[in-house]
Amino acid sequence: MKSTRKKLPSLKWFGWTDTGKVRKNNEDSFLGLQFDAREVHRLGKFGEASTETMDFTFAVSDGMGGAKAGEFASRIAVEKITTLLPRAFKHSAIGLQPGFSDVLAELFSQIHRALVFVGGSYEETEGMQATLSLCWFTPNWMYFGHIGDSRIYHLPKQKKEIKQLTHDDTHVGWLRREGKISERELRVHPGRSALQRALGGGNQFVEPQAGAVAWERGDIFLLCTDGLVDGLYDDQLVGLLRDKLDNPAQELVETSVKNSGRDNTTALVIQVV
Predict the structure, then answer these.
(1) How many domains does the chain have?
(2) 3-state SS of the chain: helix, strand, coil percent to 5?
């Protein structure tokens, strides 16, 4: 007798990054992992895999600091996930949802402490900081954690509007959420890049935003650094994400850099298929 158990969806992912037109080095980093309680597999820039047996994590980070400190900061932020998050897999196995925010808060706290330690140990990394936006895919649920002004978007199946799941940790981001300025005004505001919260640096307390989203086949998620949305409006994001592109992340980044390119630009696109 054949099993009637419904097969779980697969994830397709695409990642791309570009230094942009102005900066000399790329301070953005991104990461994809597939893991369970015993194994951790680092994912390539693009691929596809089933959600049947393992969890997935995707993350982007934008580093800040003098010389190459920003590069080190974002790299430390994403690399720490490789060792820290799989340890929390047992929470997923017994039902993560009630305690996911505690798991992510501890993860962000440990990354923060690592950045503070390294930043205080070497003159060339003094004061380095990083944003971090992370998605953790388990069967039926995506849990996310965030601090800074990188972003996570959700484009639900057959919906025309894209939803920004994360809040920009800037005063200008608050003005936008309160409806005091438009999307266009936000992009030209002189204070749009002034972060109020980040990992590392002189920040004493880390209070990441955490949330959960139920996903289904046809959903699309986008993780990006602020450089991407400097060159693309929300409706342009939707248009490019809905197109049948070989690598939507590459197309998003290249289009944004063509339109702006004032900052490092990174995108991670995850499709539920």
Answers:
(1) 1
(2) 35, 30, 40
Q: Which domain holds residue 226?
A: 10-168+198-272
Is the predicted pLDDT of residue 70 greater than 80, yes or no?
yes
What are the start-end ranges of the H helices in the chain? 69-87, 89-93, 100-119, 171-177, 183-188, 226-230, 234-242, 248-259
> Partners of 16 in the beta sheet?
267
Q: Is the dihedral of CA 228, 273, 238, 168 positive or negative?
A: negative
Q: What is the pTM of this model?
A: 0.93
Phi, psi of 8 (to 5 degrees): -75, 150
Which residues contact residue 121 at a Cβ distance below 8 angstroms, ignoring those fewer than 6 apart?
none
97: nearest Cα among 47, 45, 143, 155: 143
Question: Given pLDDT bands bounded at 50, 70 and 90, which one contains residue 173?
Answer: confident
Residue 265 inside a domain? The answer is yes
pLDDT at 100: 83
Could you tell me if residue 191 is inside a domain?
Answer: no
Which residues lie closer than 8 Å to 75 by C-beta, 6 or more apart? 29, 61, 63
Note whether residue 1 is domain-resident. no
User: What's residue 97's pLDDT?
Assistant: 59
Distance CA 138, CA 89 (A): 10
Residue 81, domain member (yes or no): yes
Is the pLDDT score of 128 beyond 80? yes
CATH number of the structural domain spanning residue 113? 3.60.40.10
For residue 6, name the pLDDT band (cuts at 50, 70, 90): confident
* Beta bridge mates, 42: 33
User: From CA 146, how far away is CA 131, in angstroms rounded?
Assistant: 8
Phi, psi at 28, each rounded to 5°: -90, 150
CB atoms within 10 A of CB 72: 22
